[in-house]
Recover the amino acids of this structure.
């Protein structure tokens, strides 16, 4: 009798636990746990020389990557890795293949960088001589500062190994409101975890809190044709590894264009 009752209590308990787990994993933070990828062979070059020009612009749309918190720890990706901008914000660990190049600093260890730009293909050049970023090659065009942590600049191109790693960011996910009342253009930045947003949904009080899917315009710019002026806005962010987070009421009703709002959550 007692053991039956205990069993029932236990079952009830585990049932409750199950319910809570199911609820937690379908509402927020669904998807697989982040896992580093395998080390993979590739190559790296550097761009822009020893100045800060490389911190402006970039195909991911982050603008001034220095003020957006990416610093100089950035890279451009060949189109194979860039995946039409859906890899923007992803983080990579890169090490020089010391055994294959005398340009590598033997004790440099590895660097970690965030993808902020595209390294365009150069079809006029062969893939093994100048056309480093041509498909199907994987390639990293690093900031000068990051390249020279791994190898001598004279090396110009170095053999490397890379793997995806979780992004570590300070603070919450940031949403910058651009565009105009008929075309909201939202830039999503400072994303931790897998780092790369692959789907963005928005909802507001006046749209009855119905999730509307934004369209990727370029890089990490997402467009929604819906007038959301004067309304609270929430975001549902999906990353490349399937993880989902909801940032509720991040944008207050009195928002304006050009403003950036930081949520209190991150991956
Ligand atoms: C980019 O942001 C940094 C840090 O806020 C600032 O010092 C720098 O002047 C900015 N660069 C440009 C070109 O606006
Ligand atoms: C890189 O180094 C490894 C280990 O010494 C060697 O087996 C391999 O053939 C080298 N690859 C190239 C492209 O030189
Ligand atoms: C809008 O957001 C504020 C907090 O920023 C909250 O107090 C308010 O209830 C929200 N309004 C609606 C209609 O959800």
């Amino acid at each position: 009798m007692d053991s039956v009752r205990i069993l029932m209590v236990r079952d009830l308990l585990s049932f409750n636990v199950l319910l809570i787990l199911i609820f937690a994993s379908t509402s927020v933070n669904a998807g697989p746990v982040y896992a580093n990828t395998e080390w993979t062979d590739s190559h790296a070059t550097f761009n822009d020389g020893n100045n800060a020009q490389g911190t402006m612009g970039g195909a991911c749309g982050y603008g001034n990557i220095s003020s957006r918190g990416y610093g100089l720890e950035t890279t451009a990706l060949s189109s194979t890795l860039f995946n039409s901008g859906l890899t923007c914000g992803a983080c990579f660990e890169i090490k020089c293949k010391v055994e294959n190049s005398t340009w590598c600093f033997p004790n440099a260890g590895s660097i970690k960088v965030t993808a902020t730009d595209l390294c365009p293909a150069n079809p006029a050049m062969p893939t093994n001589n100048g056309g480093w970023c041509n498909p199907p090659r994987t390639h990293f065009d690093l900031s000068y500062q990051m390249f020279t942590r791994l190898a001598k600049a004279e090396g110009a191109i170095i053999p490397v190994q890379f793997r995806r790693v979780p992004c570590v960011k300070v603070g919450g996910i940031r949403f910058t409101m651009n565009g105009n009342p008929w075309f909201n253009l939202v830039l999503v930045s400072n994303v931790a975890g897998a780092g790369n947003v692959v789907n963005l949904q928005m909802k507001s009080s006046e749209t009855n809190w119905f999730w509307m899917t934004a369209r990727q315009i370029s890089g990490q710019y997402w467009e929604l044709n819906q007038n959301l002026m004067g309304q609270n806005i929430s975001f549902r962010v999906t990353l490349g590894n399937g993880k989902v987070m909801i940032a509720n009421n991040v944008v207050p009703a009195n928002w304006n264009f050009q403003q950036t709002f930081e949520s209190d959550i991150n991956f």
About this structure: The chain has two domains: 33-165, 174-262.
